[in-house]
Amino acid sequence: xxxxxxxxxxxxxxxxxxxxxxxxxxxxxxxxxxxxxxxxxxxxxxxxxxxxxxxxxxxxxxxxxxxxxxxxxxxxxxxxxxxxxxxxxxxxxxxxxxxxxxxxxxxxxxxxxxxxxxxxxxxxxxxxxxxxxxxxxxxxxxxxxxxxxxxxxxxxxxxxxxxxxxxxxxxxxxxxxxxxxxxxxxxxxxxxxxxxxxxxxxxxxxxxxxxxxxxxxxxxxxxxxxxxxxxxxxxxxxxxxxxxxxxxxxxxxxxxxxxxxxxxxxxxxxxxxxxxxxxxxxxxxxxxxxxxxxxxxxxxxxxxxxxxxxxxxxxxxxxxxxxxxxxxxxxxxxxxxxxxxxxxxxxxxxxxxxxxxxxxxxxxxxxxxxxxxxxxxxxxxxxxxxxxxxxxxxxxxxxxxxxxxxxxxxxxxxxxxxxxxxxxxxxxxxxxxxxxxxxxxxxxxxxxxxxxxxxxxxxxxxxxxxxxxxxxxxxxxxxxxxx
Length: 483
Prior knowledge:
Helices cover 36% and strands 20% of the residues. By secondary structure, the protein is of the alpha+beta class. It has a domain at 111-211: PDZ domain (Pdz3 Domain). The strands form three sheets. Strands 2, 3, 4, 5, 6 and 7 form a six-stranded antiparallel sheet that branches. α3 packs across α7 (177-184), α9 (254-270) runs parallel beside α10 (288-299) and α10 runs parallel beside α14 (388-398). The longest helix is centred in the N-terminal third of the chain and has 18 residues, at 28-45. The two termini are 37 Å apart.
């Protein structure tokens, strides 16, 4: 979970450059080699592969995958097989990156559905797109004869989660619906869509045109041009209530982040802010140092995690050293001396191949005591609040430093896996990331799959989405104003 590590965020699937695959389909022999490589990779690099799955379930999952590759598959089809397979680990940091395969599918003339969806109470709603043929807020009942429930269930198998966090699977299906859907269902130029309009409730049926690469490229360019700044500050009630939005703990430069955080807490004192809402929704994580920096202004502590467990392998050591340009053993521990990441760096470099090592965070904190926030703290979290931001949310709750509002975030009650490193499968060249660490919230080394629960479970409402009202933020503001 270091500052250069890639975490599960929406942006993560867009960080890899698109390459042209040498062939349209993969042979059974090629895919079997990739499966064998993946199996060995999991067994040799994952810190604890059988935390949420038994050895028997693991073997059965690979046997199922081997049967599915008995025929030639496109890279996108094979990505679907691999995504379902790695999802069995219930580790959001060990996964196939299928963006390249999807882009190749589009280059070869493949279609996609240009709709953004929201899944609420196991129902699918349209929140954007649909060629203006479908009213915003409409419940999607069927697509090409397949019920929305069946679609959600099938696409969920391609999704990821940490332990048994159901909200994460749902939010990932929403975020990657345009990629997930063609991985499971064939798409033609026209698609029969049945939906129930909001709020009238009338049932309609239309033919929705599919989209191709040109439109996808244009929309992606537009999305990048309108990319939001990674952090933002808003005020209500003449400064008495503040909303600190942290969209990522990894984007931008460390010094800019720390400068922004310090300036924000100085502003809170100047404006006599009494309630702080830290908005970590859709924040997939990032630098542990940045997380600790923010935490120190709330609780006066820099180190908030109990320990980390590292699994060392030839691959993880090579990839870890590469992250520091082969100077990690000399430079990184010095630069990060006195931090949890410094301990991780030293441990990752010195641990022997095949061994597990535990690092405890016991270094003294460094923070500005005069800037520690004295008011009430609230954290907004959802199923895409992952890794560092999920651990932050859980620590705030466990230490009694504030209230968490929203839904299950991407961690169990005991912690999460992390420290993702990049690799690729030898035959298909599909990229993937692997986790080599376990981040624990306690020192009893229990591994319950149960999700971390917020103090206030607040599900978004379709009537609010239609008018762009933020259900969870409004709940927090109402809660604060009533006190």
